[in-house]
Design a protein that fits this description.
Rossmann fold, single chain
Length: 331
């Protein structure tokens, strides 16, 4: 009997934990053909070992574990696989497979537009002195941090903002105060902070408090913080898709193919010498066009294998938030 185990990050904030439980219930209702349960990596019960034990006690002979995490940081790439390896050793007769995190998906780009609208923004026609500051949790995994920058670049490409900058709330830099300093120095009069978070939690509340303090100190500018993603139907659809991919043994979470149709829908097919939509330098100014590097077709799937623990290189910057393990908060 196959069971699906959704794994949330976990938070000491009970509201954030309850939001994840509500998500589990809604995904279960959307996938009536599957038996589905939820657990947490840390801070809440049941944890992964308890979650697996409960499914096995209920008769599960196969468990497909799906991390409900936005990016491929240490939790998705090392901590959860380590816990699942423990569970396999404790239940050798049960097949335990690991599915993809949420990763890149056009729905998540669309959700950015929705949370911007919630604070009065029209992302297709923003004021020229408005800047976005995308804020991630932060990780000691440089690939996960670079993927956050990659996603925010697509926000810049897809919407109409001249300035989209990045910051993190823990473990790496630029920190949130440093990000605010940067967009202020670039001349923004209205700064919209976009937390890249699924649920509420201590880190989301810290972002709100930090921005409120900056507003009090800088009344000459206007600041806003968008809502976290929550149970938006577009987010739920991504989770549903990742569950179905995990059952099928494939993953599209890391693929870039979804980006090109969005760009072409907005700008039209790229032609040699076509000016950049934001008015910045492009191929024509450089005297050459970039070749098409052959991105995979949208319906091409890669088989997904559980990742092993990742090694982190020495010599990382020892900034104020760059010490210790990944900080608790919303996933």
């Amino acid at each position: 009997m196959r069971e699906i185990l959704l794994i949330g990050h976990g938070t000491r904030d009970d509201d954030g934990a309850e939001e994840f439980r509500r998500m589990v219930r809604r995904i279960g209702a959307a996938l009536p053909a599957h038996r589905l349960a939820g657990c947490f990596l840390e801070f809440q019960a049941p944890d992964i070992q308890d979650g697996v034990d409960r499914l096995v006690a209920g008769g599960a002979t196969e468990i497909v574990a799906v991390p409900v995490l936005l990016l491929d940081a240490g939790h998705a790439m090392a901590d959860i696989p380590r816990e699942l390896a423990r569970a396999r050793s404790r239940h050798p007769a049960v097949a335990i497979r690991y599915g993809p995190h949420l990763g890149f998906h056009p729905n998540l780009l669309a959700v950015i537009g929705r949370v911007l609208a919630a604070v009065g923004e029209d992302p297709r026609r923003p004021a020229p002195d408005t800047a976005l500051l995308m804020v991630g949790r932060g990780s000691r995994d440089p690939v996960a941090n670079s993927n956050f920058y990659k996603f925010s670049r697509m926000v810049w490409e897809h919407y109409g903002y001249d300035t989209v900058e990045n910051a993190f709330v823990g473990l790496t830099r630029p920190s949130l105060p440093e990000g605010l300093d940067r967009v202020e120095a670039l001349g923004a009069r209205r700064i919209v902070v976009v937390p890249y978070f699924l649920f509420t939690g201590r880190l989301y509340r810290r972002i709100v408090a930090t921005v409120a303090a900056r507003q009090a100190a800088r009344p000459d500018r206007t600041y806003a913080v968008t809502p976290y993603f929550g149970l938006d139907p577009l987010v739920l659809d991504v989770v549903r898709q990742r569950v179905e991919e995990a059952v099928a043994g494939v993953s599209t979470a890391g693929q870039d193919a979804w980006m090109r149709p969005l760009a072409e829908a907005r700008y039209g097919p790229r032609e040699e010498g076509h000016p950049h939509p934001h008015g910045h330098g492009h191929e024509a100014e450089q005297g050459h066009a970039h070749p098409d590097h052959g991105h995979p077709h949208a319906d091409h799937h890669h088989h997904y294998d559980p990742p092993g623990p990742s090694a982190h290189p020495p010599g990382r910057p020892d900034g104020p938030d760059a010490r210790g393990r990944e900080e608790p908060g919303a996933s």
